[in-house]
Design brief:
heterodimer, A: mainly alpha, B: mainly alpha, ABC transporter involved in vitamin B12 uptake, BtuC, two-stranded antiparallel ribbon, 2 strands
Chain lengths: 285, 314
Protein backbone atom coordinates (compact mmCIF):
# COMPACT_ATOMS: atom_id res chain seq x y z
CA UNK A 1 0.00 0.00 0.00
CA UNK A 2 2.78 2.40 1.00
CA UNK A 3 4.56 1.37 -2.18
CA UNK A 4 2.00 2.90 -4.48
CA UNK A 5 1.47 5.90 -2.20
CA UNK A 6 4.99 7.13 -2.94
CA UNK A 7 4.51 7.56 -6.73
CA UNK A 8 1.07 9.11 -6.20
CA UNK A 9 2.33 11.72 -3.74
CA UNK A 10 5.43 12.35 -5.89
CA UNK A 11 3.16 12.77 -8.90
CA UNK A 12 0.96 15.31 -7.13
CA UNK A 13 3.99 17.38 -6.17
CA UNK A 14 5.43 17.03 -9.67
CA UNK A 15 2.04 18.18 -10.95
CA UNK A 16 2.59 21.46 -9.11
CA UNK A 17 5.73 21.98 -11.18
CA UNK A 18 3.94 21.04 -14.39
CA UNK A 19 1.18 23.51 -13.62
CA UNK A 20 3.81 26.13 -12.90
CA UNK A 21 5.56 25.71 -16.25
CA UNK A 22 2.21 25.56 -18.09
CA UNK A 23 0.55 28.70 -16.73
CA UNK A 24 2.29 30.92 -19.27
CA UNK A 25 1.22 28.72 -22.17
CA UNK A 26 -2.32 28.56 -20.82
CA UNK A 27 -2.54 32.34 -20.43
CA UNK A 28 -1.30 32.97 -23.97
CA UNK A 29 -3.66 30.42 -25.42
CA UNK A 30 -6.56 31.87 -23.50
CA UNK A 31 -5.83 35.41 -24.60
CA UNK A 32 -4.57 35.09 -28.16
CA UNK A 33 -5.64 31.57 -29.21
CA UNK A 34 -1.96 31.07 -29.85
CA UNK A 35 0.13 28.08 -28.77
CA UNK A 36 3.66 29.25 -28.35
CA UNK A 37 5.87 26.55 -29.89
CA UNK A 38 8.88 28.21 -28.27
CA UNK A 39 7.36 27.95 -24.79
CA UNK A 40 9.53 25.00 -23.75
CA UNK A 41 12.66 26.82 -24.85
CA UNK A 42 11.64 29.91 -22.91
CA UNK A 43 11.23 27.73 -19.81
CA UNK A 44 14.71 26.30 -20.36
CA UNK A 45 16.02 29.84 -20.84
CA UNK A 46 14.52 30.60 -17.41
CA UNK A 47 16.37 27.57 -16.01
CA UNK A 48 19.65 28.78 -17.50
CA UNK A 49 19.10 32.28 -16.12
CA UNK A 50 18.61 30.80 -12.66
CA UNK A 51 21.66 28.60 -13.16
CA UNK A 52 23.76 31.53 -14.38
CA UNK A 53 22.71 33.81 -11.52
CA UNK A 54 23.59 31.08 -9.03
CA UNK A 55 26.94 30.21 -10.64
CA UNK A 56 28.25 33.70 -11.38
CA UNK A 57 26.73 35.83 -8.63
CA UNK A 58 26.12 33.17 -5.99
CA UNK A 59 22.51 34.26 -5.39
CA UNK A 60 19.98 31.63 -4.47
CA UNK A 61 18.01 31.05 -7.68
CA UNK A 62 14.72 31.89 -5.95
CA UNK A 63 16.14 35.28 -4.96
CA UNK A 64 17.64 35.48 -8.44
CA UNK A 65 14.07 35.66 -9.77
CA UNK A 66 14.20 39.35 -8.79
CA UNK A 67 16.55 39.71 -11.75
CA UNK A 68 15.27 37.09 -14.19
CA UNK A 69 11.54 37.82 -13.94
CA UNK A 70 11.79 41.49 -15.01
CA UNK A 71 14.27 40.44 -17.70
CA UNK A 72 11.89 37.88 -19.19
CA UNK A 73 8.94 40.26 -18.72
CA UNK A 74 10.72 42.88 -20.83
CA UNK A 75 11.77 40.32 -23.43
CA UNK A 76 8.21 39.09 -23.73
CA UNK A 77 6.88 42.60 -24.22
CA UNK A 78 9.41 43.27 -26.97
CA UNK A 79 8.70 39.95 -28.72
CA UNK A 80 4.99 40.66 -28.77
CA UNK A 81 5.44 44.25 -29.86
CA UNK A 82 7.95 43.72 -32.65
CA UNK A 83 7.38 40.14 -33.82
CA UNK A 84 4.08 38.58 -32.85
CA UNK A 85 1.81 41.58 -33.35
CA UNK A 86 3.05 41.81 -36.94
CA UNK A 87 2.93 38.06 -37.43
CA UNK A 88 -0.75 37.90 -36.54
CA UNK A 89 -1.49 40.38 -39.32
CA UNK A 90 0.25 38.33 -42.04
CA UNK A 91 -1.56 35.00 -41.83
CA UNK A 92 -2.69 32.46 -39.27
CA UNK A 93 0.33 30.21 -39.88
CA UNK A 94 2.89 33.01 -39.50
CA UNK A 95 2.93 33.19 -35.66
CA UNK A 96 3.47 29.43 -35.59
CA UNK A 97 6.48 29.60 -37.90
CA UNK A 98 7.90 32.64 -36.10
CA UNK A 99 7.59 30.80 -32.79
CA UNK A 100 9.45 27.91 -34.40
CA UNK A 101 12.19 30.34 -35.44
CA UNK A 102 12.35 31.74 -31.90
CA UNK A 103 12.66 28.21 -30.56
CA UNK A 104 15.58 27.61 -32.93
CA UNK A 105 17.30 30.84 -31.88
CA UNK A 106 16.89 30.31 -28.12
CA UNK A 107 17.92 26.66 -28.30
CA UNK A 108 21.13 27.42 -30.16
CA UNK A 109 21.90 30.57 -28.19
CA UNK A 110 21.63 28.47 -25.03
CA UNK A 111 23.89 25.87 -26.60
CA UNK A 112 26.51 28.47 -27.50
CA UNK A 113 26.34 30.20 -24.13
CA UNK A 114 26.19 27.14 -21.85
CA UNK A 115 27.50 24.21 -23.97
CA UNK A 116 25.25 21.20 -24.70
CA UNK A 117 26.15 19.56 -21.34
CA UNK A 118 23.37 18.62 -18.97
CA UNK A 119 23.03 21.11 -16.10
CA UNK A 120 21.14 21.27 -12.84
CA UNK A 121 20.53 24.04 -10.32
CA UNK A 122 22.12 22.81 -7.08
CA UNK A 123 21.29 24.76 -3.95
CA UNK A 124 21.85 24.06 -0.27
CA UNK A 125 18.43 22.44 0.01
CA UNK A 126 18.65 20.42 -3.24
CA UNK A 127 19.41 17.19 -1.45
CA UNK A 128 17.29 17.85 1.64
CA UNK A 129 14.28 15.64 2.19
CA UNK A 130 11.22 15.46 4.44
CA UNK A 131 8.99 12.68 5.68
CA UNK A 132 5.28 11.96 5.38
CA UNK A 133 4.82 9.09 7.81
CA UNK A 134 7.63 6.78 6.91
CA UNK A 135 7.87 7.93 3.28
CA UNK A 136 10.74 10.17 2.27
CA UNK A 137 10.42 12.95 -0.33
CA UNK A 138 12.77 15.64 -1.69
CA UNK A 139 12.05 19.13 -0.28
CA UNK A 140 12.34 20.57 -3.79
CA UNK A 141 9.22 18.63 -4.86
CA UNK A 142 7.22 20.12 -1.98
CA UNK A 143 8.49 23.55 -3.02
CA UNK A 144 7.28 22.85 -6.58
CA UNK A 145 3.78 22.13 -5.35
CA UNK A 146 3.58 25.10 -2.97
CA UNK A 147 4.96 27.58 -5.50
CA UNK A 148 2.67 26.12 -8.18
CA UNK A 149 -0.39 26.72 -6.01
CA UNK A 150 0.81 30.16 -4.94
CA UNK A 151 1.56 31.41 -8.47
CA UNK A 152 -1.68 29.96 -9.82
CA UNK A 153 -3.73 31.71 -7.11
CA UNK A 154 -1.86 34.99 -7.60
CA UNK A 155 -2.43 34.86 -11.35
CA UNK A 156 -6.11 34.12 -10.84
CA UNK A 157 -6.50 37.02 -8.42
CA UNK A 158 -4.61 39.27 -10.83
CA UNK A 159 -6.88 38.32 -13.73
CA UNK A 160 -10.11 38.86 -11.76
CA UNK A 161 -9.28 41.79 -9.48
CA UNK A 162 -6.91 44.23 -11.19
CA UNK A 163 -7.77 46.53 -14.08
CA UNK A 164 -5.09 45.09 -16.36
CA UNK A 165 -6.09 41.55 -15.48
CA UNK A 166 -9.72 42.28 -16.28
CA UNK A 167 -8.69 43.94 -19.52
CA UNK A 168 -6.74 40.79 -20.46
CA UNK A 169 -9.73 38.61 -19.59
CA UNK A 170 -12.04 40.87 -21.58
CA UNK A 171 -9.78 40.84 -24.63
CA UNK A 172 -9.56 37.06 -24.47
CA UNK A 173 -13.34 36.68 -24.34
CA UNK A 174 -14.22 39.08 -27.12
CA UNK A 175 -11.54 41.22 -28.66
CA UNK A 176 -13.85 43.55 -30.60
CA UNK A 177 -16.19 44.19 -27.71
CA UNK A 178 -13.20 44.87 -25.47
CA UNK A 179 -11.87 47.39 -27.97
CA UNK A 180 -15.25 49.11 -28.09
CA UNK A 181 -15.07 49.42 -24.31
CA UNK A 182 -11.85 51.36 -24.72
CA UNK A 183 -9.31 48.62 -24.14
CA UNK A 184 -6.13 48.93 -26.14
CA UNK A 185 -5.89 45.31 -27.27
CA UNK A 186 -2.35 45.65 -28.62
CA UNK A 187 -1.09 46.84 -25.27
CA UNK A 188 -3.07 44.19 -23.45
CA UNK A 189 -1.57 41.48 -25.68
CA UNK A 190 1.89 42.90 -24.99
CA UNK A 191 1.32 42.65 -21.22
CA UNK A 192 -0.16 39.17 -21.56
CA UNK A 193 2.90 37.95 -23.47
CA UNK A 194 5.20 39.65 -20.95
CA UNK A 195 3.39 38.05 -18.01
CA UNK A 196 3.52 34.65 -19.71
CA UNK A 197 7.27 35.04 -20.13
CA UNK A 198 7.72 36.14 -16.51
CA UNK A 199 5.84 32.98 -15.49
CA UNK A 200 8.22 30.86 -17.56
CA UNK A 201 11.15 32.44 -15.70
CA UNK A 202 9.64 31.23 -12.41
CA UNK A 203 8.77 27.83 -13.86
CA UNK A 204 12.25 27.48 -15.36
CA UNK A 205 14.01 27.99 -12.04
CA UNK A 206 11.96 25.37 -10.24
CA UNK A 207 12.29 23.02 -13.19
CA UNK A 208 16.06 23.43 -13.05
CA UNK A 209 16.06 22.55 -9.35
CA UNK A 210 13.93 19.44 -9.96
CA UNK A 211 15.33 17.98 -13.19
CA UNK A 212 18.60 18.18 -15.10
CA UNK A 213 18.21 20.12 -18.36
CA UNK A 214 20.05 20.63 -21.67
CA UNK A 215 19.55 23.28 -24.39
CA UNK A 216 17.35 20.82 -26.30
CA UNK A 217 15.09 19.86 -23.37
CA UNK A 218 12.60 22.52 -24.42
CA UNK A 219 10.54 20.25 -26.63
CA UNK A 220 9.89 17.71 -23.83
CA UNK A 221 8.64 20.45 -21.55
CA UNK A 222 6.60 22.02 -24.33
CA UNK A 223 4.87 18.65 -24.70
CA UNK A 224 4.29 18.40 -20.95
CA UNK A 225 2.99 21.97 -20.77
CA UNK A 226 0.75 21.39 -23.75
CA UNK A 227 -0.53 18.15 -22.23
CA UNK A 228 -1.24 19.93 -18.97
CA UNK A 229 -3.12 22.73 -20.68
CA UNK A 230 -5.12 20.41 -22.88
CA UNK A 231 -6.13 18.07 -20.06
CA UNK A 232 -7.27 21.01 -17.98
CA UNK A 233 -9.15 22.73 -20.77
CA UNK A 234 -7.87 25.90 -22.31
CA UNK A 235 -7.39 29.18 -20.55
CA UNK A 236 -8.67 28.09 -17.14
CA UNK A 237 -6.08 28.48 -14.39
CA UNK A 238 -7.63 25.92 -12.05
CA UNK A 239 -7.99 23.53 -14.99
CA UNK A 240 -4.31 23.95 -15.78
CA UNK A 241 -3.44 23.16 -12.19
CA UNK A 242 -5.56 20.02 -12.13
CA UNK A 243 -4.18 19.04 -15.56
CA UNK A 244 -0.66 19.31 -14.19
CA UNK A 245 -1.47 17.04 -11.28
CA UNK A 246 -3.18 14.45 -13.49
CA UNK A 247 -0.19 14.39 -15.82
CA UNK A 248 2.29 14.25 -12.93
CA UNK A 249 0.51 11.33 -11.26
CA UNK A 250 0.16 9.50 -14.58
CA UNK A 251 3.87 9.91 -15.19
CA UNK A 252 5.01 8.64 -11.78
CA UNK A 253 2.50 5.78 -11.87
CA UNK A 254 3.72 4.91 -15.37
CA UNK A 255 7.24 4.85 -14.00
CA UNK A 256 6.08 2.70 -11.08
CA UNK A 257 4.35 0.10 -13.25
CA UNK A 258 6.48 0.05 -16.41
CA UNK A 259 9.89 1.12 -15.13
CA UNK A 260 11.35 4.63 -14.87
CA UNK A 261 12.58 4.64 -18.48
CA UNK A 262 9.01 4.62 -19.85
CA UNK A 263 7.77 7.59 -17.75
CA UNK A 264 7.97 10.13 -20.56
CA UNK A 265 6.49 7.71 -23.08
CA UNK A 266 3.40 7.44 -20.86
CA UNK A 267 3.09 11.24 -20.86
CA UNK A 268 3.43 11.47 -24.66
CA UNK A 269 0.88 8.71 -25.22
CA UNK A 270 -1.62 10.39 -22.89
CA UNK A 271 -1.22 13.67 -24.76
CA UNK A 272 -1.72 11.91 -28.10
CA UNK A 273 -4.79 10.00 -26.89
CA UNK A 274 -6.40 13.11 -25.44
CA UNK A 275 -5.69 15.01 -28.65
CA UNK A 276 -7.29 12.28 -30.72
CA UNK A 277 -10.30 11.72 -28.48
CA UNK A 278 -11.02 15.04 -26.79
CA UNK A 279 -8.97 17.92 -28.21
CA UNK A 280 -11.03 20.46 -26.26
CA UNK A 281 -9.70 18.97 -23.01
CA UNK A 282 -11.26 16.91 -20.25
CA UNK A 283 -12.88 19.94 -18.65
CA UNK A 284 -13.22 21.99 -21.84
CA UNK A 285 -16.46 23.20 -23.29
CA UNK B 1 5.16 37.01 -67.27
CA UNK B 2 5.00 35.20 -63.97
CA UNK B 3 3.40 32.20 -65.55
CA UNK B 4 6.24 32.19 -68.08
CA UNK B 5 8.73 32.20 -65.25
CA UNK B 6 6.95 29.29 -63.67
CA UNK B 7 7.11 27.29 -66.87
CA UNK B 8 10.70 28.11 -67.44
CA UNK B 9 12.32 27.41 -64.12
CA UNK B 10 12.51 23.66 -64.67
CA UNK B 11 14.85 23.96 -67.67
CA UNK B 12 17.80 25.71 -65.95
CA UNK B 13 17.08 23.73 -62.78
CA UNK B 14 17.24 20.42 -64.62
CA UNK B 15 20.53 21.53 -66.14
CA UNK B 16 21.99 22.24 -62.68
CA UNK B 17 20.61 18.95 -61.43
CA UNK B 18 22.33 17.03 -64.23
CA UNK B 19 25.67 18.65 -63.41
CA UNK B 20 25.21 17.82 -59.73
CA UNK B 21 24.24 14.25 -60.51
CA UNK B 22 27.37 13.85 -62.65
CA UNK B 23 29.67 14.86 -59.78
CA UNK B 24 31.02 11.34 -59.10
CA UNK B 25 31.85 10.84 -62.79
CA UNK B 26 33.70 14.11 -63.37
CA UNK B 27 35.87 13.49 -60.33
CA UNK B 28 34.48 16.22 -58.10
CA UNK B 29 36.07 16.50 -54.64
CA UNK B 30 34.58 14.21 -52.00
CA UNK B 31 33.06 16.95 -49.88
CA UNK B 32 31.34 18.42 -52.97
CA UNK B 33 29.71 15.07 -53.50
CA UNK B 34 28.58 15.09 -49.88
CA UNK B 35 27.08 18.59 -50.30
CA UNK B 36 25.24 17.48 -53.41
CA UNK B 37 24.05 14.31 -51.65
CA UNK B 38 22.63 16.29 -48.72
CA UNK B 39 21.15 18.80 -51.14
CA UNK B 40 19.15 16.06 -52.88
CA UNK B 41 17.99 14.46 -49.62
CA UNK B 42 16.95 17.77 -48.06
CA UNK B 43 15.35 18.86 -51.31
CA UNK B 44 13.10 15.81 -51.42
CA UNK B 45 12.08 16.33 -47.79
CA UNK B 46 11.55 20.08 -48.18
CA UNK B 47 9.41 19.52 -51.28
CA UNK B 48 7.25 17.07 -49.36
CA UNK B 49 6.93 19.46 -46.45
CA UNK B 50 5.94 22.21 -48.89
CA UNK B 51 3.30 19.89 -50.33
CA UNK B 52 1.79 19.51 -46.86
CA UNK B 53 2.28 22.92 -45.28
CA UNK B 54 2.17 25.05 -48.40
CA UNK B 55 -0.38 23.36 -50.62
CA UNK B 56 -2.51 21.38 -48.17
CA UNK B 57 -2.49 23.62 -45.10
CA UNK B 58 -1.16 20.80 -42.91
CA UNK B 59 1.71 22.15 -40.78
CA UNK B 60 3.14 18.70 -40.18
CA UNK B 61 5.85 18.45 -37.55
CA UNK B 62 6.01 14.64 -37.61
CA UNK B 63 8.18 14.17 -40.71
CA UNK B 64 11.08 12.72 -38.63
CA UNK B 65 8.72 9.84 -37.77
CA UNK B 66 8.44 8.91 -41.46
CA UNK B 67 12.13 9.10 -42.30
CA UNK B 68 13.04 7.36 -39.05
CA UNK B 69 10.58 4.51 -39.47
CA UNK B 70 11.75 3.92 -43.04
CA UNK B 71 15.39 4.06 -41.94
CA UNK B 72 14.72 1.63 -39.12
CA UNK B 73 12.74 -0.75 -41.34
CA UNK B 74 15.63 -0.88 -43.79
CA UNK B 75 18.27 -1.30 -41.04
CA UNK B 76 16.40 -3.99 -39.14
CA UNK B 77 15.71 -5.67 -42.49
CA UNK B 78 19.43 -6.00 -43.17
CA UNK B 79 19.77 -7.80 -39.82
CA UNK B 80 17.20 -10.45 -40.68
CA UNK B 81 18.40 -11.04 -44.20
CA UNK B 82 16.20 -8.73 -46.26
CA UNK B 83 18.22 -6.97 -49.01
CA UNK B 84 18.66 -3.23 -48.41
CA UNK B 85 16.79 -2.17 -51.56
CA UNK B 86 13.69 -4.12 -50.58
CA UNK B 87 14.03 -2.73 -47.06
CA UNK B 88 14.30 0.78 -48.44
CA UNK B 89 11.12 0.54 -50.52
CA UNK B 90 9.36 -1.45 -47.82
CA UNK B 91 10.40 1.15 -45.27
CA UNK B 92 8.87 3.92 -47.33
CA UNK B 93 5.65 1.88 -47.59
CA UNK B 94 5.70 1.37 -43.81
CA UNK B 95 6.11 5.13 -43.37
CA UNK B 96 3.09 5.71 -45.61
CA UNK B 97 1.10 3.12 -43.69
CA UNK B 98 2.06 4.81 -40.43
CA UNK B 99 0.86 8.10 -41.94
CA UNK B 100 -2.44 6.38 -42.76
CA UNK B 101 -2.87 5.22 -39.15
CA UNK B 102 -1.84 8.62 -37.85
CA UNK B 103 -4.26 10.43 -40.12
CA UNK B 104 -7.23 8.82 -38.31
CA UNK B 105 -6.19 10.68 -35.16
CA UNK B 106 -4.56 13.91 -36.27
CA UNK B 107 -6.82 14.85 -39.21
CA UNK B 108 -9.56 15.67 -36.73
CA UNK B 109 -7.31 18.43 -35.45
CA UNK B 110 -6.93 21.71 -37.23
CA UNK B 111 -4.29 24.41 -37.36
CA UNK B 112 -2.18 24.64 -34.25
CA UNK B 113 -3.64 21.45 -32.76
CA UNK B 114 -2.50 19.53 -35.81
CA UNK B 115 0.96 21.04 -35.46
CA UNK B 116 1.32 20.11 -31.77
CA UNK B 117 -0.30 16.70 -32.21
CA UNK B 118 2.20 15.83 -34.92
CA UNK B 119 5.08 17.33 -32.93
CA UNK B 120 4.56 14.77 -30.17
CA UNK B 121 4.69 11.75 -32.52
CA UNK B 122 8.45 11.65 -33.22
CA UNK B 123 9.11 12.32 -29.53
CA UNK B 124 7.03 9.29 -28.58
CA UNK B 125 8.73 7.16 -31.26
CA UNK B 126 12.13 8.17 -29.97
CA UNK B 127 11.13 6.94 -26.51
CA UNK B 128 9.87 3.69 -28.00
CA UNK B 129 13.14 3.11 -29.82
CA UNK B 130 15.07 3.91 -26.65
CA UNK B 131 13.20 1.14 -24.85
CA UNK B 132 12.56 -1.39 -27.60
CA UNK B 133 15.47 -3.24 -29.15
CA UNK B 134 14.03 -5.06 -32.17
CA UNK B 135 17.10 -7.18 -32.84
CA UNK B 136 19.96 -7.99 -30.50
CA UNK B 137 23.61 -7.41 -31.14
CA UNK B 138 25.97 -4.50 -31.55
CA UNK B 139 24.71 -1.21 -30.18
CA UNK B 140 25.60 2.17 -31.53
CA UNK B 141 24.79 4.98 -29.12
CA UNK B 142 21.83 4.90 -26.75
CA UNK B 143 18.82 2.62 -27.17
CA UNK B 144 18.24 0.85 -30.47
CA UNK B 145 21.37 1.98 -32.30
CA UNK B 146 22.31 -0.33 -35.17
CA UNK B 147 24.82 -0.56 -37.96
CA UNK B 148 23.50 -1.60 -41.37
CA UNK B 149 24.56 -5.15 -42.17
CA UNK B 150 25.88 -6.40 -45.45
CA UNK B 151 25.91 -3.11 -47.36
CA UNK B 152 29.64 -3.24 -48.11
CA UNK B 153 28.83 -4.18 -51.71
CA UNK B 154 26.81 -0.98 -52.28
CA UNK B 155 29.02 1.62 -53.92
CA UNK B 156 28.99 5.27 -52.84
CA UNK B 157 27.99 6.24 -56.36
CA UNK B 158 24.87 4.07 -56.24
CA UNK B 159 23.74 5.74 -53.02
CA UNK B 160 24.49 9.17 -54.46
CA UNK B 161 22.43 8.51 -57.58
CA UNK B 162 19.57 7.14 -55.54
CA UNK B 163 19.54 10.42 -53.67
CA UNK B 164 19.70 12.32 -56.95
CA UNK B 165 16.74 10.37 -58.34
CA UNK B 166 14.60 11.01 -55.25
CA UNK B 167 15.64 14.69 -55.06
CA UNK B 168 15.04 15.47 -58.72
CA UNK B 169 12.02 13.19 -58.81
CA UNK B 170 10.41 15.13 -55.95
CA UNK B 171 10.57 18.35 -57.99
CA UNK B 172 8.77 16.73 -60.91
CA UNK B 173 6.37 14.93 -58.56
CA UNK B 174 5.28 18.28 -57.07
CA UNK B 175 4.79 19.67 -60.57
CA UNK B 176 2.66 16.69 -61.59
CA UNK B 177 0.59 16.75 -58.38
CA UNK B 178 -0.15 20.44 -58.63
CA UNK B 179 -1.31 20.17 -62.21
CA UNK B 180 -3.40 17.07 -61.54
CA UNK B 181 -6.93 16.71 -60.24
CA UNK B 182 -5.47 16.27 -56.77
CA UNK B 183 -3.72 19.62 -57.10
CA UNK B 184 -6.94 21.29 -58.20
CA UNK B 185 -8.66 19.83 -55.18
CA UNK B 186 -5.87 21.09 -52.96
CA UNK B 187 -6.02 24.63 -54.26
CA UNK B 188 -9.77 24.79 -53.87
CA UNK B 189 -9.49 23.50 -50.29
CA UNK B 190 -6.80 26.06 -49.62
CA UNK B 191 -8.97 28.87 -50.91
CA UNK B 192 -12.03 27.80 -48.98
CA UNK B 193 -12.45 24.44 -47.34
CA UNK B 194 -16.23 24.68 -46.98
CA UNK B 195 -16.82 25.71 -50.56
CA UNK B 196 -14.56 22.89 -51.72
CA UNK B 197 -16.53 20.38 -49.68
CA UNK B 198 -19.84 21.74 -50.96
CA UNK B 199 -18.83 21.33 -54.61
CA UNK B 200 -18.07 17.68 -54.01
CA UNK B 201 -14.40 17.53 -53.11
CA UNK B 202 -13.67 14.92 -50.50
CA UNK B 203 -11.52 17.12 -48.27
CA UNK B 204 -10.42 14.29 -46.01
CA UNK B 205 -9.36 12.07 -48.88
CA UNK B 206 -7.46 14.78 -50.75
CA UNK B 207 -5.51 15.66 -47.62
CA UNK B 208 -4.94 11.98 -46.87
CA UNK B 209 -3.43 11.37 -50.32
CA UNK B 210 -0.95 14.20 -49.94
CA UNK B 211 -0.10 13.01 -46.43
CA UNK B 212 0.60 9.49 -47.73
CA UNK B 213 2.67 10.69 -50.70
CA UNK B 214 4.65 12.97 -48.44
CA UNK B 215 5.28 10.18 -45.93
CA UNK B 216 6.38 7.78 -48.67
CA UNK B 217 8.87 10.13 -50.33
CA UNK B 218 10.19 11.46 -47.01
CA UNK B 219 10.66 7.86 -45.88
CA UNK B 220 12.50 6.98 -49.08
CA UNK B 221 14.83 9.97 -48.73
CA UNK B 222 15.40 9.08 -45.08
CA UNK B 223 16.27 5.48 -45.89
CA UNK B 224 18.80 6.64 -48.49
CA UNK B 225 20.29 9.04 -45.95
CA UNK B 226 20.79 6.22 -43.45
CA UNK B 227 22.09 3.93 -46.17
CA UNK B 228 24.83 6.51 -46.69
CA UNK B 229 25.42 7.02 -42.98
CA UNK B 230 25.70 3.29 -42.32
CA UNK B 231 24.10 3.36 -38.89
CA UNK B 232 20.92 4.61 -37.23
CA UNK B 233 20.14 5.56 -33.63
CA UNK B 234 16.98 7.04 -32.11
CA UNK B 235 18.02 10.40 -30.67
CA UNK B 236 19.34 11.90 -33.92
CA UNK B 237 16.70 10.17 -36.04
CA UNK B 238 13.46 11.17 -34.33
CA UNK B 239 14.79 14.65 -33.86
CA UNK B 240 13.07 17.97 -34.37
CA UNK B 241 16.18 19.16 -36.25
CA UNK B 242 14.92 17.33 -39.34
CA UNK B 243 11.67 19.26 -39.18
CA UNK B 244 13.63 22.46 -38.78
CA UNK B 245 15.67 21.74 -41.92
CA UNK B 246 12.53 21.13 -44.00
CA UNK B 247 10.73 24.12 -42.57
CA UNK B 248 13.70 26.45 -42.99
CA UNK B 249 14.38 25.36 -46.57
CA UNK B 250 10.74 25.76 -47.56
CA UNK B 251 9.98 29.01 -45.77
CA UNK B 252 13.24 30.77 -46.65
CA UNK B 253 12.94 29.79 -50.30
CA UNK B 254 9.23 30.48 -50.50
CA UNK B 255 6.41 28.40 -49.12
CA UNK B 256 3.64 27.46 -51.59
CA UNK B 257 5.93 28.01 -54.59
CA UNK B 258 7.48 25.24 -56.66
CA UNK B 259 10.89 26.91 -56.82
CA UNK B 260 11.01 27.87 -53.15
CA UNK B 261 12.27 24.60 -51.67
CA UNK B 262 15.01 24.42 -54.34
CA UNK B 263 16.37 27.87 -53.53
CA UNK B 264 15.86 27.34 -49.80
CA UNK B 265 17.67 24.00 -49.80
CA UNK B 266 20.65 25.52 -51.64
CA UNK B 267 20.87 28.25 -48.99
CA UNK B 268 20.52 25.75 -46.14
CA UNK B 269 23.24 23.47 -47.49
CA UNK B 270 25.63 26.38 -48.11
CA UNK B 271 25.04 27.80 -44.63
CA UNK B 272 25.36 24.36 -43.11
CA UNK B 273 28.80 23.79 -44.56
CA UNK B 274 30.06 27.37 -44.37
CA UNK B 275 29.33 27.36 -40.63
CA UNK B 276 30.05 23.68 -39.96
CA UNK B 277 32.92 24.61 -37.66
CA UNK B 278 30.73 26.76 -35.43
CA UNK B 279 28.15 24.29 -34.16
CA UNK B 280 24.98 26.06 -33.20
CA UNK B 281 25.64 29.31 -35.07
CA UNK B 282 24.36 27.85 -38.34
CA UNK B 283 20.91 27.16 -36.87
CA UNK B 284 20.96 30.42 -34.92
CA UNK B 285 21.50 32.40 -38.12
CA UNK B 286 18.90 30.36 -39.97
CA UNK B 287 16.40 31.07 -37.20
CA UNK B 288 17.02 34.80 -37.55
CA UNK B 289 16.70 34.59 -41.35
CA UNK B 290 13.46 32.63 -40.92
CA UNK B 291 11.88 35.31 -38.74
CA UNK B 292 13.07 38.16 -40.96
CA UNK B 293 11.75 36.41 -44.08
CA UNK B 294 8.37 35.78 -42.46
CA UNK B 295 8.02 39.42 -41.50
CA UNK B 296 9.46 41.04 -44.62
CA UNK B 297 8.33 38.67 -47.35
CA UNK B 298 6.07 35.81 -46.22
CA UNK B 299 6.48 34.27 -49.67
CA UNK B 300 10.20 33.86 -49.09
CA UNK B 301 12.99 34.66 -51.49
CA UNK B 302 10.80 33.58 -54.42
CA UNK B 303 8.30 36.24 -53.38
CA UNK B 304 11.04 38.88 -53.47
CA UNK B 305 12.29 37.66 -56.88
CA UNK B 306 8.79 37.67 -58.35
CA UNK B 307 8.10 41.18 -57.09
CA UNK B 308 11.41 42.34 -58.47
CA UNK B 309 10.78 40.79 -61.89
CA UNK B 310 7.33 42.31 -62.04
CA UNK B 311 8.81 45.67 -61.15
CA UNK B 312 11.66 45.37 -63.66
CA UNK B 313 9.25 44.53 -66.51
CA UNK B 314 7.33 47.70 -65.97
Amino acid sequence: MNDILTPILMGIMLGGLYALISLGLSLLFGVMRFINLAHGDFVILGSYLGYGILTYFGFDPVIGLVISVPLMFGLGFLIQKYLMSRAFEVSSDTPLIIAFGLSLIIQNANQIAWTPLSRGINTGYSNASFFIGSLQFPVVYLLDLLVGILVMLLLREFLTRTYLGRAITAASQDKKAAELMGINSKRVYGYAFAIAMALTAIGGVFLGMTFPFTPTSGISFLTIAFGTVIIGGLGSMWGTFIGGIILGVMQTLGGYFFGPASQMLVVYLIVLIILAVRPQGLFGR
Amino acid sequence: MISRLKNDFLIPTTFIFIILALFPLIGAPRNWILYAFLFFIYLAMANMWNLLAGYSGLISLCQPAFLGLAGYAMTIGTWIGIPWWIGMTGGAIIAAFFAFLLSRAVFRLSGIYFAIGTLVVPEALRMIFYLWKPVGGAMHGAGAGYMLKGIEGVSQNTIFWLAAIVGIGSVYLIRIIIRSKLGLGLSSIRDNQRTAASIGINVFRVKLYTFLISAFVTGLAGAIYYLNQGYIEPSATFNVRWTMIMLLATVIGGIRTEEGPIIGTIIIVILYFALARYAGYSFLIQGIILILIMLISPEGIMGIIKKFLLFAKR
